[in-house]
Amino acid sequence: MPTLHWIGKEKVINHHLDVPYRVLDHQYTFNESAASTSSTTDSAPVTEPVEVPGVGTGNKIIHGDNLEALKSLLPEYEGKIKCIYIDPPYNTGNEGWVYNDNVNDPKIKKWLGQVVGKEAEDLTRHDKWLCMMYPRLKLLHKLLAEDGAIFISIDDNEQASLKLLMSEIFGSGNFVTNIIWQKKTGASDAKGIANITEYIICYLKNSNCLSDIFEKNKESYDIKRYRHQDQYFSDRGPFYIDNLDRGGLQYSDSLNFGIVCPDGSTTFPNGRSTFINDGWIWKWSKQKIDWAIKNEFIEFRKSNTKESGWSVCYKNYLYVNNQNEIIERAAPIKNIINDVLNADAAADIKELFGTNVFKYSKPFELVNKIISLVKLNKNSIILDSFAGSGTTAHAVLNLNKQDGGNRKFICIEMEDYAETITAERVKRVIKGYGDKEGTGGSFDYYELGPALFNGDNEINELVGVEKLRQYMYYTETKGVLNSPFAASTGSATKVKKDNDYLLNKHNDTAYYFYYEQDMVTTLNHDFLSTIKTKAEQYVIYADNCLLTKEFMTKHHIIFKKIPRDITKF
Q1: Number of structural domains in the chain
Q2: Stated pTM of the model
Q3: Which domain holds residue 508?
Q4: Which of 255, 268, 377, 447 has the fewest beta carbons under 10 Å from its own?
Q5: What average pLDDT does this structure show over 260-278?
Q6: Where are the beta strands (DSSP E) in 273-399?
């Protein structure tokens, strides 16, 4: 498989492992009730941020660097995202994004200097773009479910590079197609050949799941062909007629036999009266034809041109196949979208905000079509880590309104308009805007919080004990600590079933995080005496350990030292 090389590649291949894990700081929850009590104009926000009881609507808008935000999602969402759609910068050399070579942004200079080193001084804009995309795609790969699909909008500037990049990270065998989007009808100012298309590259996490991932085009068949009816109409639907015999290169004597006609005579393929190898055969076996005649899937028609005087046909019903099994007529969806124009995006934004506050969004209907290609159940999660104006969230809310689903969106936007445009758009979609009825729904708004570990790889105590506990449990089990036990820091909700340091029991292993901010903890016999949970194995984190190796082996105890043995991912 061809691979792509660029300056700085060796420095970013594993950079996703070095990205600091940051907690998500919840800012507010916006829901239908908040929207219903607020007023809006085209220029005014829907509402001020409203805090409602509880956190966890499932829908998230996150403001912050999408590389760090993606890392922060791993404990809860690794391998759980059904569909990813992203619209990253196209790297035209003209747009004002922070990773562009035309923008002397101190953040990208610092990042490139730290990660790539002195080589960063020689990077072209293509090198910079690839350095930016690689670790993000690595994290997106981790987040995508085994039966999930990822779609990436791109144009000719980086399309070829992106495909090689995706094949390296996701595997060339997981490439599905390059969807062609006709974004406009013409370009009068074009020099040479007008470029009126863009691309949406699609990959899977696991191609073995292909048949279970994509929807079918249920309008692909020609309904006008099904114009005949018989006594089975209520069960089988209308039908059309096709010939039961065929001529071709795949001849077989076993498919060249006589069929008894209604008048008692016998007909062979091609309307012959006798057995002759003229290349013609029946499409079905004798056993199947006998069954089809009995169940009236076969129709005999008198023919003046056939030697036997008969033409044998079979009925193609709309609602059943030729084994009388109920089916849904459909075909694969084609890789061309030509009924949504880029100009529609500007119209969407103007209708939402009263003015064009965002220039480079994708049309709502385009994103709606893309995520609708995937067989989303009503609880699927859709992720967009280049959220922009919030089009993906809009599409998810719209789908939920259409079929009563409970799909969730996660949108990440690093720019400062995450609150004023991205979140604001979602608020208006929930509430309703112009003559559009609101979709209903809710979302939580987050800022990226502090890193879990400081520069010396010591625990950042500003994070809080509960966030640490959730992280520890995930690193051990890849599971979410849904109902964590209260820490021993004065909480009124202490759990009495065990000591306060129990995280949970998973696969007959009990996990303990024996940690206090203001003291050194020691795993000893006194601590063991507080353990009530019965398990085949115990994993216990503490600052020190006074138990002997022999004792721990005998009692199936694994000691892990804080912070040295805490897994960093």
Answers
A1: 3
A2: 0.77
A3: 461-561
A4: 377
A5: 95
A6: 280-282, 298-302, 310-317, 331-332, 336-337, 381-384
